[in-house]
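Final report, closing paragraph on structural work. Over the funding period we assembled a curated collection of sequence-structure pairs, and we close with a single example.
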Amino acid sequence: MYYNKIRIPLLIVLVVLMFLDLSGIIYVPPLVIFLIAIGLIAYNIYIRKNAANYYKKKD
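Its predicted structure, as stored:
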């Protein structure tokens, strides 16, 4: 799906950054992790609203 082109890479980056930070390989500021997570949540809400509006308009 079109939306997954953005969501999946961001999710992978988030998981990799969290893993590297927790393992001690690199230091990632918590603000970066929170911003990526909040961005993913906001984008998911945006997608859900568009999908809901699409089906309402279609009827």
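The radius of gyration is 15 Å. Helices lie at 4-23, 30-58. We thank the funder for supporting this effort.
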